[in-house]
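job 3f2a | input accepted
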Amino acid sequence: MTHYVDSEVGRLGAVLLHRPGPELARLTPRNNNTLLFDAIPWVARAQEEHDAFAGALQAHGVEVLYLRQLLAETLTVAEARQKLTRLVLADRRLGDTLRRRVADHLAQLDPVDLAAGLIAGVAHEELRPGSTRSAGLVYTLMDRHDFVIDPLPNLLFTRDSSVWIRDRAAVTSLAMPARRRETSLTDVIYRHHPRFAGTQLVYEPSLEHLEGGDVLLLAPGVLAVGVGERTTPAGAERLARQVFAAPGTGTALAHTILVVPIAQRRATMHLDTVCTMVDTDAVLMYPNLADSLLAYTVVAGADGEPQVEGPAPFLRAAAAAMEIDELRIIDTGLDPVTAEREQWDDGNNTLAIEPRLCVAYERNVETNAQLELAGIEVIRIAGSELGSGRGGPRCMSCPVLRSPLRP
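job 3f2a | predicted structure (407 res):
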């Protein structure tokens, strides 16, 4: 199987990453809130930290695929280039005159430079009017610090724009305006890059809001979907319909969806900010929510319609769906204050390389100690700059291949 994922902890074979680049240098105190960063990252250090993250994965035999390289290769395909160019030119902020100038600018770029522009954006000062074409009113009235094409600094978090469910890719529908173009890049790669030829999609960006950070593959056939700041109840229901009725599989991609309401605030923007799997039967979890988190169980009815039961305590519902006696719980932190600090610093957001082996930020000292006491080996990586966008190792990685787990 070239691409296949049926769990959070099966042996990781290949992963999609995006090494941060010039798009991070576009962040300023004036725009960082709009672009969803809590601080202005030191770009060179963020790149060093990301290189160390990728190196740790490669040292354990994981194939690392870089999104920027895949995009540049995809843009050699005329249809892919046309799709993304049309998307950029459809921005209603541009107006007709500036739209023609942008079209001229993009047409002159080779695939590598076009990929760079689509990721890092194009600033006002980088799009000088040509000698034969007027700048136009929109360009003239723009602030010199404005972007003609907005940058995508959150592309670093490749988990959110797609998630694999068995041999299908779900290209998600991102809720925040600053991130919506990310899924268009991912969608074009899956549709047109030779590596992913024949990939069938089980979700598309045009559907209801659903983000990959809210989707956990608890076990083969069992998904948990967080509903909160980013993923809507309609998105969770749509995903359930899609996986229950996936064509060409012979069976559904999943038999149970656990829909988990989470608080609509930045500290808990996704389900994987409070809960990640580190073993086939063990979950790392923010203790403040361990006893209060609820889940609605969604299964396919006889008529094919999603049937909803519950709510029930999340941990109990998850164990029942996974057909195990109980989930082992490993707490974030050690005391309430440390737990809150380390949850904010992505202590819960670990990436499992295989059962009982995960990657975590080194700064979450107590959480990592709790993991090791529970028999989980921890590969510690630096994340002082990478974490400024609120995301840890799981957020920064989209597995495209894991060894299958047997139910």
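job 3f2a | The chain has a mean pLDDT of 88.
job 3f2a | closed
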